[in-house]
Every structure is written in C-alpha cells, then in structure tokens.
Amino acid sequence: MFDTIIIGAGPAGLSAAKILQESQKVLVLDEYFHAGGRLLGQLYEEEKGRWWNGLEIARRLIMETEGKSEIRLSTSVYNVELDDIYTVYTTAGVFKSRSLIIATGAREKSTPLPGWDLPGVMTVGAAQVLTNFSRVKPGNKGVIIGINPLSMVIAMELGYTDIEVAKICLPPKNKINDQTPKDAFETLVSLGNSAPSKFISFGTRVAGRVKPLHPAALKLFPKGGVKAMGLPISIKEKIIRINGTEKVESVTMQKTDSKGRPVGRKREIQCDFVCISDGLAPLSEIGSLLDLRHVYSEPLGGYVPLHSEMMETELPDLYVAGNVTGIENAKVAMYQGQLAAHRILGDEEAAICTLASINNERKNAKVKFHKDLIHGRETVEAMWKDLGKENV
Amino acid sequence: MTERILNHKILGAIRHEFVPFKWNGETIYGVEGESLTAALLANGIRTLRTHEKDGKPRGLYCNIGHCSECRVTIGGEKNQRACLTPVKEGMSVKQQTELPHLVKGDDSHV
Ligand SMILES: Cc1cc2nc3c(=O)[nH]c(=O)nc-3n(C[C@H](O)[C@H](O)[C@H](O)COP(=O)(O)OP(=O)(O)OC[C@H]3O[C@@H](n4cnc5c(N)ncnc54)[C@H](O)[C@@H]3O)c2cc1C
Ligand code: FES
C-alpha cells in the first residue's frame, strides 16, 4: 500500500514525486523504459545562447527521485478503480494507494492522407525522439506536413543534425483537418517572438510594407514559401499524397491560392521520410476509466478531465497534473506536479506560491501551443466553480 | 540507410557499446538499452511488420507507445511494441506477418 501512486514519470509526475517522497511512500509508474516523458526529446534555444535541454532536466529529476520514490518503468497502467482507496492495474501487477495523480501527458494528433501508412511516415514527435534521444536519423531528407508550434520547433531540431527538411507545408483538406493558409499564417505569427515568426513578419514587411496580420500580407506571402532560420515554410502548398512501394520515396505537392484552392500543376518532391503533425491532445483515458467528467476545450488541445486550478478533480484524493490538463510546455507541467503534491500534503502556502509561478510562466512562455490558452484555462476554472455551486 | 548521430551540434559527441541481437534469425547490432525501433532503423530496417490483413509493409509511427504500429514478436511473445522495448544482448525479435484468412484459408489475401 502506497500513500500516493503517480501515473506517468514525465516532468509533472517526477516533480510531484520529488516533493511527496519527503514524507510519503510514493510509487511512480511509466510504460516507457526511461523516465522523463516527453522531456527526453526536447531541445531548443530559449534565449540567445540559453538552451532548454530536456534530456538534462529529465536526468536531474531522475537523480532527485531515484531511491526515494519507487519508480517502475516498462509498466503500463490499463485500469484504475476507486473503492475507499485506489487500485491500479498494470502489466506488472496490481498496486494500491490512498491518493492518485494522473500525469499521463499528451498524444500527437494526425491528419491521415493517402500513403500515410508507408514505413518512413511518422509523427514529428517520433522524429524528435529518434534524433535527440536515440541519436538515430529518421532519414536524410524529410518533408513535414502540418504547420504548428511543435512542427516548427522539431523542424529546427532536425536542422541541428544536418537532416535536410525539404518542405514544411499543409495537409490536404479533409473532415478532421481544414487548416487554411490563413490559419497557418496566424499560427506562424502567433508563435510569439520565436525565430520563424520574426523572420516572417520581417519578410512580409519587406514585401509589402504592411503589418503581418493585415489581409494583404497573406496574399503577398510568397507562393514558394519563405526560408526562416533555414526552414522552408510554405503555407500555399499542400502535400496531397505520399508515394512509395516498400517505403517513402516522394510526396506529391499541390500549390494553392491564399484560400487553399488548388492552382497550377502538381509536383513531386523526393524524400526518404515524412513527418505528420496536427498538434497535441491531452491523454486522458485513465480519467475516463474513473468516469471523470470531461470538458472540451480547443485552446487546451481537446477533452480534459474537469479540474480546479489547484489540480483537484471531482473524486476524493485524485489529482491531475501536466499536459493531461491541457497542452503547455514542460515548465508548466513541472509546476503543476508540484502543486498537486502540495495539495496532497495540505501545504496551502506552498500551493498558492506555485500557482503564482504557473501563471507567470504561462504569460512568458517561449513555446506557446495556443494563442487562447489563458482563456481556455479560465473557462475550465469557471466550470469547476459552477460544479461547486451545483453540489451545495 | 539511416545513420547514427555521433556528433550533435548542441548535445555533443557520444560513444556506443554495441551488442548483438537477432532480427528474423539474423544477427544484427544495437546499443544496449536503446529502443528497438531506433536500433532497427540504424540498421536500415524500416518495415517492422506486414499488415495482418493486406500484407502491406508498416513501420514505426509515434515511437512513444501510443499507436501500436510497431508491434513485433519478442522472445516468442507477440504484439510487443518495439518502440517501448529496450535492446538486450541476445534477444530474439521477429517480424509479424499477414494472418491466414479465416474463411478462404492461407493463400487468400483479402
Ligand atoms: C511528441 C511530443 C513532443 C513534444 N515536444 C515538446 C517540445 O519540444 N517542447 C515543449 O515545450 N513541449 C513539448 N511537448 C509537450 C509536452 O507534453 C510537455 O512539454 C511535457 O512533457 C508534459 O509533461 P507531462 O509530465 O504532463 O507528460 P509527459 O512528458 O508526456 O509524460 C507522461 C508520461 O506518462 C506515461 N504514460 C502515459 N500513459 C501511461 C499509462 N497508461 N501507463 C503508464 N505510463 C503512462 C508516458 O509514457 C510518459 O512518460 C511534446 C509533447 C509530445 C507528445
Ligand atoms: S510506434 Fe507507435 S506504439 Fe510504437
């Protein structure tokens, strides 16, 4: 019997363990063979010369928790039940605890297109883990389909190892994705002051002497795309098909106008790997197993278990932390893990202090996953408060 | 052929100790503790299985355990996710192939 079981050894789970282990018997479960979650592949420049090296940060968290918390890797959780205490069913046995933290993180979304099942097609996250954690090239020349913060960050990471990215452009329109050149353009501009958007606003200003969000800027966006930080970004090109027999050999590209309508002829681009990227969504199956009420929030990435800003859920002694509550960067996930731990220990002062750190990081984050994130957080908090009124 | 990144501009250099393991009965080499998907890719192997129904080649997709596209047989145990399995010296990994059709028998594909 444990005081607290934490599902997920990512930045959120390990940060919670680090605090709880001082006074509690803690078990951390993760199905990967290495602790650290999605930190393991992260690598980007936060400010000139200051790098966010996720692998290093993961190693530090592991060092701080190893031996003090019980960490079981290569262990998948497939069911959880509540009956006075929590019972967690895993591929390595059944474990019980008084409190439970769900810190399962996020998954990548994909837009299917013809040929996406060929070997050599993968998510951008897969390419990130291969390149930065396993240090194996996903291929020599790739095409990235999907324009969003994650695909931009990872495209840059591929560049640090001289893997050629031939094109970053849009997927074909279908029922689950209708990202238009305008949406992609807004995404690029909303990336804040990270490198590609700076270049784009510069590029468009030079081209038309107009503000980046002015409608004319989209029309002026070069047909063949722009080179930003060495990235060939193109919002007026779509990949409509991936070609190959045994593996990826090329993609078929179609030029479009600023509304996304096809213009001109199709062209083939040779490549040996393709990354599909349609953003991230919270991974919340465990919450569903416990019948937690979920709410849909576009800015948070999809369905999230209804929770308070203090990481509480509708069930007693059940907390959530990290990307399962909404898509944000790893720093926020770490603070959320700490916050859940403080709440479990009843340390109100530390909890309030950590909440302030979260709000601060949210405002100044270098990697922003959605422009309306803060609004999304406020909406969920308002729903949580309404729930309180319902129960009175 | 995909290469290993021995010198990374930001992460620096690494050195590997290689161990032998079996892929479809043939001896190949990987780094002890790295994911099977990485080890196979570094050996130029992209096709991890052929689809149960139509026999088409499939490879890794998410590389973090979410999609099950990378399922292989490890030490006789079927449907293990290669991306979640670290390389161990001497382990035996096999590609999974098309299943016989329940009605039409072994030769039929659809
Ligand atoms: C592919 C990918 C790439 C990303 N890249 C970046 C980036 O470059 N920069 C950035 O700021 N953010 C990135 N993110 C966002 C990322 O989610 C956060 O930065 C942060 O890692 C979230 O931390 P977490 O602890 O909530 O979840 P994670 O780091 O995802 O950790 C969750 C852990 O839970 C485990 N787990 C999940 N379900 C189970 C189960 N049923 N049983 C056992 N274990 C389970 C997983 O194996 C994982 O180790 C990325 C996300 C993904 C999915
Ligand atoms: S590649 Fe998706 S589960 Fe292994």
Automatic annotation (TrEMBL), chain A:
Q: Kindly provide the name given to this protein in its UniProt entry.
A: Sarcosine oxidase subunit alpha
Q: Among its keywords, does the record have Methyltransferase?
A: no
Q: Where is the FAD/NAD(P)-binding domain?
A: 2-337
Natural source organism: Salinicoccus halodurans
Domain of life (superkingdom):
Bacteria
Q: Which UniProt keywords apply?
A: Oxidoreductase
Annotated Pfam families: Pyr_redox_2
Does the keyword Oxidoreductase feature in the UniProt annotation?
A: yes
The Gene Ontology terms for molecular function here are: oxidoreductase activity
Supply the PANTHER family for this chain. Answer: ANAEROBIC GLYCEROL-3-PHOSPHATE DEHYDROGENASE SUBUNIT B (PTHR42949)
Return the Gene3D superfamilies for the record.
FAD/NAD(P)-binding domain
From TrEMBL, chain B:
What Gene3D superfamilies has UniProt attached to this entry? 2Fe-2S iron-sulphur cluster binding domain, sarcosine oxidase, alpha subunit, N-terminal domain (3.10.20.440)
Q: Does the keyword Transmembrane apply?
A: no
Domain of life of the native organism: Bacteria
Q: Which GO terms describe its molecular function?
A: iron-sulfur cluster binding; oxidoreductase activity
> What keywords are assigned to this protein?
Oxidoreductase
Q: Which CDD domains match?
A: fer2
Q: Which InterPro entries match?
A: 2Fe-2S-bd_N (IPR042204), 2Fe-2S_ferredoxin-like_sf (IPR036010), 2Fe-2S_ferredoxin-type (IPR001041)
What protein name applies here?
A: Sarcosine oxidase subunit alpha
Organism, by scientific name, is Salinicoccus sediminis
**Lineage of source species:** Bacteria, Bacillati, Bacillota, Bacilli, Bacillales
